[in-house]
Design a protein that fits this description.
Order of helices and strands: HHEHHEHEHEEHEEHEEEHHHEEHEEEH
Largest sheet: 7 strands, mixed
Bound molecules: pyridoxal-5'-phosphate
Structural class: alpha/beta
Number of domains: 2
Distance between the termini: 57 Å
CATH topology of the largest domain: Aspartate Aminotransferase, domain 2
Radius of gyration: 22 Å
Shape: globular
Helix content: 25-40%
CATH class of the largest domain: Alpha Beta
CATH superfamily of the largest domain: Type I PLP-dependent aspartate aminotransferase-like (Major domain)
Strand content: 5-15%
Strand order of the largest sheet: 2-8-7-6-5-3-4
Number of helices: 13
CATH architecture of the largest domain: 3-Layer(aba) Sandwich
Length: 400
């Protein structure tokens, strides 16, 4: 008799986006004349920039010629891309990395989900609440049951406090999805120091790093002294350069980073991940890595920065528009997400229904990101400018 992995039966079904789709579909089939504005799902809407498209075309042409055709590439990524990442993302911030400390992958979702393969099942895991749901679900799938939730709410300014009990793995998503929170160097140092003291591992998801606009906010956890000994950093081209449908990301694992056997023997995490990645993954397509490389050309950098500014201008409009009608907002300054407190403390789903039915705007109920998201709501800056402006006009008609 074939047995299933029963851990998968323990995951709470996350119906968030399918529930949203159901409610939106029901509404639109009954109201076909109404234009719905979608500021819900965190996906980009601007097309890939011209430099990226040119580079993709050139790489496709290379694949058509006998001399330049590429079969399997290096599983861990092509050097040409890894070198550009180190030179552009880390060295200017005073962080030196070796090429074999950067692993190219098809996405941070896969990497943040798969990293647990090389970590013990008995580890106690700290997860901020609310947050990107992949961390919790993939730990439950792996059979990790010791979860410590770190509440983030208006009262603590969405900054998690250190856990009271000792934890082994700590997920920090900064800038945060969904709250848009960032930590200063001093605040992040508290976590690095905790991890050093407790021999814990920080899993630092910096998927929204490119959206940071304020000074003194670290873009990489390795800007904090000693972080190389305790942290893995996840980065992605998805939101930075519009690669959500093109797929390219990378994970940094410094060689200083050690995990431990039950006997207390230190083991290189970098070596374990190298083994795991090269055994279970066959590399990101050459054409995609060439496209990612072009993000670091002069024109690529400028185009990508312009698109990010476009989204962040939307974020400003949303914050200002909501402020005008007396809705309290958070985030939206260093992240493409605006996290808002629902008026009159309405439950997140009630507010969702009001926005859909009265204003024909779709957002994301905060409770979908964790219990502490109840009473909050997420809007994204990833819409078009026109839709963002129209959505804010519609908010003026909101009476609760
Ligand atoms: N990490 C966070 C915090 C995200 O919000 C997302 C996507 O929304 C991802 C990772 C997924 O990134 P990728 O597209 O590289 O898989």
């Amino acid at each position: 008799m074939i047995k299933v992995n029963e851990n998968f039966l323990k995951i709470k079904n996350n119906y968030l986006f399918s529930d949203i789709a159901k409610r939106v579909n029901a509404f639109s089939s009954e109201n076909q004349d109404k234009k719905i504005i979608r500021l819900g799902i965190g996906d980009v809407t601007r097309p890939l920039s011209p430099t990226i498209i040119t580079s993709l075309h050139e790489a496709v042409d290379e694949m058509s010629k006998i001399d330049t055709f590429k079969g399997y590439g290096p599983e861990l990524g092509y050097d040409f891309l890894i070198e550009k990442i180190i030179d552009n993302e880390f060295r200017p911030r005073g962080i030196e990395l070796d090429k074999d400390e950067v692993f190219i992958s098809d996405g941070s979702k896969s990497d943040t989900g798969n990293i647990g393969d090389i970590l013990g099942v008995d580890n106690r895991v700290a997860i901020t609440d609310p947050v990107y749901p992949v961390y919790l679900d993939t730990n439950i799938m792996a059979g990790r049951e010791n979860i410590t939730y770190l509440p983030c709410n208006k009262e603590n300014n969405f900054v998690p406090a250190l856990p009271k009990e000792k934890v082994d793995m700590i997920y920090l998503c900064l800038p945060n999805n969904p709250t848009g929170t960032v930590l200063t160097k001093e605040q992040l140092k508290v976590w690095v120091d905790y991890a050093k003291e407790n021999k814990s591992l920080i899993l630092f998801d910096a998927a929204y790093e490119a959206f940071i606009t304020e000074e003194n906010i670290p873009h990489s956890i390795y800007e904090i002294d000693g972080a190389k000994e305790v942290a893995i950093e996840f980065r992605s081209f998805s939101k930075k350069a519009g690669f959500t449908g093109t797929r390219c990301a990378y994970t940094v694992i410094p060689k200083e980073l050690k995990g431990y056997t039950t006997n207390g023997e230190a083991v290189s995490i970098n070596k374990l991940w190298n083994r795991r990645h090269s055994t279970k993954f066959n590399g990101v397509p050459y054409i995609v890595q060439k496209a990612a490389e072009s993000v670091y050309t002069d024109s690529g950098k400028k185009e990508v920065a312009d698109i990010i500014s476009y989204y962040m201008e939307n974020a400003k409009l949303i914050k200002a528009g909501l402020g005008e009608v007396g809705i309290e907002t958070f985030g939206g300054i260093n992240a493409p997400y605006i996290w808002l407190k629902t008026p009159n403390n309405l439950p997140s789903w009630d507010f969702f229904d009001i926005l859909l039915n009265k204003l024909n705007i779709v957002g994301t109920p905060g409770v979908g990101f964790g219990q502490n998201g109840e009473g909050y709501f997420r809007l994204t800056a990833f819409g078009s400018r026109d839709n963002t402006i129209e959505a804010m006009e519609r908010f003026k008609k909101l009476s609760l």
